[in-house]
Write a structure and sequence with these properties.
single chain, 779 residues, alpha+beta, 9-stranded antiparallel beta sheet, 37 strands, 29% helix, globular
Length: 779
């Protein structure tokens, strides 16, 4: 359960009156690379440490299959076309690889005796979301900690009477870890070095030797085939400790290093550099760096006076805090748990799951004014464009690049070994690549478009075009095709592998359209754009069933789980933009009915699923559902420290932390206030009733616009729009609202009423100049 409202102040902090018992109750600190889990235990803190590049395994060989890919693929497609679902599923298993992704790893636990360990009297632990600092207070002492991005270190400092803290200790779940301690020139040092496992099987695979460590010695260059080295360096000076870490990762195609001496020196050098700064300066640099990101957007719902609104505000702030803490330029992308994990065999390997989770982590990055935090996902996409070519060619006989539902640090791209309902979804790269288009929609950047977006989209588009076949009606459908993790029912039969699942058709329509647009913008003339144009003209669009609901599959196929957690068939409404109220009101209502039907049967029982519900509710302008979804996220699917939870019987309390729900909610909350996907800046489209008064500043909109809003009694009072580009500005407001528009100098603007708008809304247009600010005021 989330923290009781009485325990959490209205400010931008989480305050709790007891230490964390479990990992998912702790506070998480991070700088995008170095992660620290803080439990807040009186007098004795145990920091669980992680580094974004410490994973099990090593570089992979290229995938291959026994038969010619063209022959095998033809057999699968033939079974699909004949309606033999059982045969199609059996043949699909032959497309799978022989293994699984590797697992994100913990480094170990740094134990620091910072106080007397008082167990009686007042106690408080606090996470300051505005400065990214945690603090523990007891009756006689206190401890403060943060992880600095500018200096690459964890810093903790004790306060209060008494002698210098006893010192440091370290323990790791990995075998063969070496720990050394010494004192030199008033500094107490601790160095720990070890190796990650050479192989870790997923937690759901029951096999002997699920965790294996390499027994090989490093080569002359200090590298190994698998099982990278890592090092932790910690130093205590008086009542302060400074900690850093280093990993042997050298790139997804390179043998990792296990040169302990070099790794230890790399970690130690960062600690020495930090020790060379005054404590106040080190803290100032951290706060300045963090607030430069966090302060770009400010949501203030205090004027509403409603506890639910204040809880939503804090959840929005917490989501942004976590994104800033786990994803920075130059780091790895945020995985299922961001950068925090205490298990050698974490849930679902704490990998990158491409059928919703890794993308959801970044849904809110652009709207929340944090576009540079999106960059690690783009780096992942660049790597996958390279790594996925072998999978496309060797498994599908296709051009371009393919990525299935899982990937990892080593850029695994083939289908993992397992049930086709989750293993054989081959369009994961299309979903990741969609984020590059989103980034360009928010701000056009020709260098990024040419260097990154164009080659990635080219690789995805080539593969998708080679996945299209003609169905019985002569329309183009993706084959083979699945709907993520969901089996269909056909009469008394069940199956997974078919042709033309709704999400695959949506992703294909989106990517082909975007490549066509990008090719025109960049003047690309490689023939691929023309292939896209022809395919789009004959692409089958998702069907609407007899009940008026958007279907998840083509034809007469029905869902086997009416409460299924994935909402894949609703992609076109969110995060996609094909289905909107103004462009296709019939399909828009079909989305609404499909979502209601799924929720009536119990969907939304995981944090990430409920975050998707919130985003869809925002797009559907269903303020009641949006408020209910937020309440479920905060009150039922969050720990006391507000970490998003996913049901899992093998973890303490039957729940496991997954970060996607926290990060997905950033987008959902932002879209309640501002939307820009449907040809207009829609202001306050889905304002929950409890948010009757408030302000927000710094939200970003597509077209390189930034928006501030203020409202009272649920009605817009003022809006400020800053536009970096010229051209017409279209704004959507509640119908009947009396308002005026002026530029920053006070010069009045006469907007023109548009003919089309969402139900109960009006759209107004006026010419805007680049670099100008426009003010909208209610009369």
């Amino acid at each position: 359960m989330a923290a009781d409202e009485s325990q959490v102040p209205e400010g931008r902090a989480i305050e709790l009156d007891r230490p964390a018992k479990e990992f998912h109750e702790a506070f998480l600190l991070g700088n995008g690379a170095l992660g620290a889990t803080v439990y807040g235990r009186p007098g004795i803190e145990e920091f669980d440490l992680n580094l974004d590049t410490v994973w099990s395994g090593g570089p992979r060989s290229e995938p291959g299959i026994g038969d010619s890919p063209g022959v095998l693929l033809a057999e699968v497609r033939s079974a699909i076309a004949s309606g033999d679902h059982d045969l199609a599923d059996r043949l699909a298993r032959a497309i799978q690889g022989e293994g699984w992704t590797e697992s994100y790893q913990p480094l170990g636990r740094l134990r620091w005796h910072w106080g007397g360990g008082e167990t009686a009297g007042p106690y408080l632990r606090r996470l300051d979301l505005a400065q990214a600092i945690t603090r523990v207070e007891t009756s006689v002492s206190a401890m403060e900690a943060y992880v600095s991005a500018p200096d690459g270190v964890l810093v903790a400092e004790a306060e209060g009477p008494g002698e210098t803290p006893i010192g440091l200790g370290f323990e790791s779940p990995h075998s063969g870890v070496e720990v050394s301690t010494w004192e030199a020139e008033g500094v107490e040092w601790l160095i720990a070095v070890g190796r990650a496992p050479s192989l870790v099987l997923p937690n759901y695979v029951e096999e002997d030797d699920a965790v294996q460590y390499g027994q090989d010695s490093p080569g002359a260059d200090g590298t190994v085939a698998a099982g990278m080295g890592w090092a932790v360096a910690a130093a205590q000076v008086g009542k302060r400790i400074v900690v850093s870490a280093a990993s042997g990762f050298r790139g997804h195609r390179e043998r990792p290093s296990a040169d302990f001496a070099r790794l230890a020196e790399a970690a130690k050098s960062r600690v020495r550099a930090a020790l060379g700064q005054a404590p106040a300066e080190l803290r100032r640099r951290h706060v300045e760096d963090y607030t430069a990101l966090f302060d770009r957007v400010r949501l203030d719902l205090a004027a509403s006076g409603d506890p639910a609104a204040l809880a939503a505000q804090r959840y929005f702030d917490f989501g942004r805090y976590l994104l800033i803490s786990c994803s920075r330029p130059g780091t790895q992308a945020a995985n299922l748990q961001g950068i925090w994990n205490v298990d050698v065999r974490p849930g679902w390997s704490a990998n990158y799951t491409t059928n919703i989770n890794v993308e959801m982590n970044y849904w809110g990055a652009e709207a929340a004014g944090l576009p540079e935090l999106h960059e690690p996902l783009f780096d992942l996409a660049r790597d996958l464009a390279d790594a996925g070519r072998a999978t496309a060619a060797n498994v599908y006989g296709a051009a371009g690049s393919a990525v299935h539902h899982n990937t990892d640090l080593w850029r695994f791209t083939e289908a993992v070994h397992g049930d086709p309902q989750w293993a054989n979804w081959q369009t994961g790269f299309a979903w990741i690549a969609a984020h590059l288009g989103d980034h360009l929609d928010y701000r056009w950047d020709e260098d990024f478009a040419r260097s990154t977006a164009a080659p990635v989209m080219h690789a995805v588009t080539e593969f998708l075009l080679d996945q299209l076949v003609e169905d019985a009606d002569g329309l183009k459908v993706v084959s083979p095709s699945t709907s993520p993790e969901h089996r269909f029912r056909s009469g008394d039969d069940f199956g997974t592998v078919t042709a033309g699942s709704t999400i695959d058709q949506e992703l294909t329509a989106q990517m082909l359209s975007r490549y066509l647009q990008l090719a025109a913008q960049l003047g690309l003339a490689d023939g691929l754009a023309e292939r896209c144009r022809k395919a789009l003209a004959h692409l089958r669009l998702p069907a609407i069933d007899a009940a008026g609901r958007l279907s998840e599959w083509a034809g007469p196929l029905l869902p086997s789980e009416l409460d299924h957690r994935h909402l894949s068939h609703l992609y076109g409404a969110f995060p996609g933009t094909r289905i909107t109220e103004t462009k296709d009101p019939y399909a828009f209502e079909a989305v609404r009915k499909a979502l209601v039907y799924r929720l009536e049967h119990g969907s939304g029982y995981t944090g990430w699923s409920q975050a998707w519900v919130l985003c869809l509710a925002a797009r559907l302008r269903d303020r009641v559902l949006a408020e209910r979804s937020l309440g479920t996220l905060v009150d039922e699917l969050s720990s006391e420290s507000l970490l998003d939870l996913h049901p899992h019987g093998d973890w303490p309390g039957g729940m496991i932390f997954q970060i996607d729900g926290n990060l997905g909610a950033i987008a959902g909350i932002a879209e309640l206030l501002l939307q820009s996907h449907d040809g207009a800046l829609s202001l306050l489209p889905t304002l929950p009733d409890s948010w009757n008064a408030g302000t927000v500043t710094g939200l970003r909109a597509r077209g390189d616009r930034t928006v501030d809003l203020a409202w009272d009694a649920g009605v817009l009072e003022h809006a400020r729009i800053r536009t970096a580009i010229g051209g017409d500005l279209v704004v959507e407001l509640d119908a009947g609202l009396a308002f005026s528009v002026a530029d920053a100098s006070g010069e009045p603007i006469e907007p023109r009423l548009e003919a089309t708008a969402a139900r109960g809304r009006e759209r107004w247009r006026w010419p805007a100049e680049a670099g100008r600010t426009y003010e909208i005021g209610a009369k």
